[in-house]
Amino acid sequence: AQKITQTQPGMFVQEKEAVTLDCTYDTSDPSYGLFWYKQPSSGEMIFLIYQGSYDQQNATEGRYSLNFQKARKSANLVISASQLGDSAMYFCATGRGTGGGADGLTFGKGTHLIIQP
Amino acid sequence: DTGVSQNPRHKITKRGQNVTFRCDPISEHNRLYWYRQTLGQGPEFLTYFQNEAQLEKSRLLSDRFSAERPKGSFSTLEIQRTEQGDSAMYLCASSLVGGEDTQYFGPGTRLTVL
User: Fold this and answer.
1) What is the mean pLDDT of residues B94-114?
2) Chain B: residue nearest A103 by CA?
3) Cα A47 versus chain centre, distance
4) Is the bond leading into B8 cis (omega within 30 degrees of zero)?
5) Chain A residues in contact with B104 (beta carbon < 8 A)
């Protein structure tokens, strides 16, 4: 079984500051993927970034980076230079296999991020 | 390149009625997933298809829930004899196995059971 823990129910951050959203995971699968999704108030889940368990380097996508610490089983999302449009729910998820998404994903409960001007 | 689409976006029904939701995946994607999301929670996996084959359905919430993907393209999720506890957002996602494999989600169908 897989489990995702997101310990920050909500966060307030000043615009243009960097923000780190925490995620720890638990899985017995030797090969897995870690994902972050953004869910604005409209409801759609928007894919942000992916990290494979065998990837040596931390993933980056524009202003998003994933701080992957395998020994600690953590996969924190870092957003640099936050913008008002970053206000949303953020979900960490994991899945089995090298691609991670080949079967169902297991999601955490999410972090509600609010960017203040 | 269009994304995943879902219809209807909102559905209000009375307890005991049957409802059906439709999902159209990204055109070249061969895997299709259904999730349920209740208020304050992350999405919960229900079932998935590879082409027309339903490869996992043990996570469907009860025998009132069923899903089909008859021609390996669009999929439908049906809930029979709806209950108030079925009120939730139903999300569909698709991916390309053998390719990027990332799941891309549609906008969801919000179900309200009165």
Assistant:
1) 90
2) B48
3) 9
4) yes
5) 47
